[in-house]
Structure formats: structure tokens, C-alpha cells
Amino acid sequence: MSAPVRILGIGSPFGDDRTGWLAVDCIRASTWYRAQAPGTISAERFDRPGPALLSIMDGASHAVLIDTMQSGAPPGTLRHVELDELALSDSNFASGHSFGLADTLLLGRALALLPPRLTLLAVEAGRAGSDDGLSCEVRAALPALVQCVEACVTRETQRIEGRDGGYRVGL
């Protein structure tokens, strides 16, 4: 994986935890994704990568991570989570292993292994660990999540190319 911008759907095959995977599937099928210059953006799915995520992001200029979380917000709630928020938060990024996304990102920060630009988009899970399908609330949030990823990547690409008027646009 050598694209400078990497969209990474984190999850598992269970319940709402597959949200990141489904978002990547939607992005890959989108006109927006197909219109990108070859080799500039990749969109991949990963099953609970744990610390291996750090090597997956190696060489990226911008990584967009899509995952579920359990913070007590209503299921389907979309959040842009800041890295500093992870260290202070009681939120649980749905993970099938004890070393989850928050731990991996905090370790990556401590070891200076994160890409220069990191965006973490999370959807509040309703049924993160069940064998049931996606909850209605999370399924309804998918189109907005995909639009959010596309807008985030487009803004960052424009910023890098100097087409954003010279200021950094936040999500």
C-alpha cells in the first residue's frame, strides 16, 4: 500500500463493528473515489489490526481511520475524534482485542510513528459485538460518514496542493 492518502476501515465481521468496512466498500464504489488520480488514495479494510496499524500507516501523508466507538451517545452518531481526546476519554473504540485502536494510536504518537495528518472518524455503535446485522441507526449514518470521509480527504488534498486559500480547514 503506497498511496499517500490512506482510508482505513477498521472493524470485524460482527454487528455494527463492520461499519468501517462497509464505509470503505461504499467509498471504493463511489464516483468520487474512481475520479482520484491513480496511486494517490487507497481505501482498505482491516480486521482489528492492533499495533500492526502503525506499519499499515507507514509512509502515508494522511490517514483517515473509520471505526466504531461506544461513548454513550445515541447509536449512529458521527464523531471526529482528536488524538488528544483518546487519552482523556472513557470512550471505548469497539475492539475484539485488549490492545485496541486508542492504545495503538497513543503508542504511535509516543513513538513518533503516526502520519503527519491523521483523521479519526467514529460512529457510535449500537450492536458492536453481536452476530446480528448492522443496526438501523448505524446503517442510516453510512451515507453521511462516506460524505464526511470524501470531504475530509478533498480538503486535505486541496490544502497540500495549495488550493485552499492558504488556511487549514477543520472537519
What do these coordinates show?
With 171 residues, the chain is an alpha/beta fold. The chain has one domain (5-160): Rossmann fold. Helices cover 36% and strands 22% of the residues. It contains six helices and six strands, in the order E-H-H-E-H-E-E-H-E-H-E-H. Strands 1, 2, 3, 4, 5 and 6 form a six-stranded mixed β-sheet that branches. Helix 1 (19-29) packs across helix 6 (136-160). The longest helix has 25 residues, at 136-160. The protein is globular. The two termini are 25 Å apart. The model is unreliable at 166-171 (pLDDT under 50).
Oligomer: single chain
Category by helix and strand content? alpha/beta
Strand proportion, as a percent range, falls in: 15-25%
**N- and C-termini, Cα separation:** 25 Å
- Summed up, the domain count is 1
Shape: globular
User: Could you please say which CATH topology applies here?
Assistant: Rossmann fold
* Strands, count: 6
Helix content: 25-40%
Q: What gyration radius follows from the Cα positions, in whole Å?
A: 15 Å
Segments where pLDDT lies below 50 for 5+ residues? 166-171
Q: Please give the CATH class.
A: Alpha Beta
Characteristics of this structure?
6-stranded mixed beta sheet; 171 residues; single chain; alpha/beta; Rossmann fold
Blueprint of the fold:
Layout: E1 5-11, H1 19-29, H2 31-34, E2 41-47, H3 52-57, E3 62-70, E4 78-81, H4 83-88, E5 92-93, H5 101-110, E6 117-124, H6 136-160
Parallel strand pairs: 1-2, 1-3, 3-6
Antiparallel strand pairs: 3-5, 4-6
Helix pairs in contact: 1-6
What's the short story on this structure?
The chain has 171 residues and is an alpha/beta fold. It has one domain: 3-Layer(aba) Sandwich (Rossmann fold).
